[in-house]
């Protein structure tokens, strides 16, 4: 069993860390929010006063934080405090440049490091079935696999440092596009008199099936339980999806690749956030579309 430091115990981090505790690992947690610290304590984790203390004895240091600026700031604290031989694993979704900066900081200190963002949402985090897409040294991946396996159903080694984040932003651009498509289909079904049940039963078993419909339906009362059944409480916040779409647009611009649907998805998520979407799950896009004017 390993000593693990877990930093950032929000919607995703807490259930991921709980699975590590359940598997018998010793987890020292740190989060800046006191209520979150309490939740971690209640789940059998030790809670450190700060990030440096959390990592002092850890074999593996996992971060699950909102964005690249926060990750690099936290790395400034944890890299000098980590013990020799520790493997740093950043599971946050962040820009490739910040991910490479974090790798460089670790490498300078002689530490192995991985960027290991995830897919599968809070349900996947709770069930331990996340997909990890991982960049960094192969040696770090081989060492960390036993830990990632506890939290994930599938590990994909994507290549050098930053490759995990590259995979993640491509996946999430597609997810945003498919969620907007699912929301459009269900909103149109409503308007033309088709029940949500009938729309779900047909689409989920026909060529329109996709994760956004089958697993995370944006309409309440149909399909598996999803944030739609909980007044669109995140889940995966619309702000985080807009962040990810910004990252894929940055990458598209830098590489010269046309991504017209990704660009439109970013516009729509920005409009949603300005019109009631702040603090809502990204599937709440359906409510924005219901109220949007045609051609808008
Ligand atoms: P969240 O906002 O619920 O959790 C982030 C946590 O980090 C919070 O508890 C916050 O207090 C803590 N935090 C912020 N700054 C900190 C600091 N300096 N030190 C310690 N703790 C700090 O976000 P989330 O939904 O758990 O997402 C976390 C990451 O995972 C994001 O990068 C997101 O894009 C990614 N992600 C989220 C989902 C999802 O469905 N929610 C799915 C895949 C990936």
Walkthrough of the structure:
The model has no long low-confidence stretch (mean pLDDT 97). Helices cover 53% and strands 14% of the residues. Strands 1, 2, 3, 4, 5, 6, 7, 8 and 9 form a nine-stranded mixed β-sheet that branches. Helix 2 links the parallel strand 2 and strand 3. The chain is built from 13 helices and nine strands. The chain is of the alpha/beta class and 296 residues long. Helix 1 runs parallel beside helix 6, helix 8 crosses helix 11 and helix 11 packs antiparallel against helix 12. Nicotinamide-adenine-dinucleotide binds next to helix 4 and helix 6.
Short description:
The chain has 296 residues and is α/β, with parallel strands linked by helices. The chain has helices spanning 13-22, 34-42, 51-55, 68-81, 96-108, 121-127, 138-151, 163-191, 196-203, 211-214, 238-255, 260-277, 285-291, and strands at 3-7, 26-30, 46-47, 60-63, 87-90, 112-115, 118-119, 130-136, 152-159.
């Amino acid at each position: 069993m390993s000593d693990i430091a877990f930093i950032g115990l929000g919607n995703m981090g807490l259930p991921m860390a709980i699975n590590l505790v359940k598997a018998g690992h010793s987890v020292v947690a740190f989060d800046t929010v006191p209520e979150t610290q309490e939740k971690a304590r209640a789940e059998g984790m030790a809670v450190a006063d700060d990030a440096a203390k959390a990592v002092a004895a850890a074999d593996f240091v996992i971060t699950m934080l909102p964005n690249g600026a926060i990750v690099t700031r936290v790395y400034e604290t944890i890299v000098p405090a980590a013990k020799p031989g520790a493997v740093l694993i950043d599971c946050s979704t962040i820009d490739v440049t910040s991910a490479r900066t974090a790798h460089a900081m670790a490498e300078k200190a002689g530490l192995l490091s991985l960027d290991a963002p995830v897919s599968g949402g809070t349900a996947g985090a709770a069930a331990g079935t996340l997909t990890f897409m991982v960049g960094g040294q192969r040696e770090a991946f081989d060492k960390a696999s036993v830990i990632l396996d506890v939290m994930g159903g599938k590990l994909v080694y994507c290549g050098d440092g930053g490759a995990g984040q590259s995979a993640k932003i491509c996946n999430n651009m597609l997810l945003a596009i498919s969620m907007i498509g699912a929301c459009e289909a269900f909103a149109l079904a409503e308007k033309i008199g088709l029940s949500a049940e009938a729309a779900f039963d047909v689409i989920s078993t026909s060529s329109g099936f996709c994760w956004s419909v089958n697993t995370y339906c944006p309409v309440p009362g149909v399909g598996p339980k999803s944030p739609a059944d909980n007044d669109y409480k995140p889940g995966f916040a619309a702000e985080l999806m807009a962040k990810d779409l910004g990252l894929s647009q940055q990458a598209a611009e830098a590489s010269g690749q046309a991504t017209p649907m990704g660009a439109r998805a970013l516009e729509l998520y920005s409009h949603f956030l300005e019109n009631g979407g702040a603090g809502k799950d990204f599937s709440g896009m359906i409510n924005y579309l219901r109220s949007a004017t045609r051609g808008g």
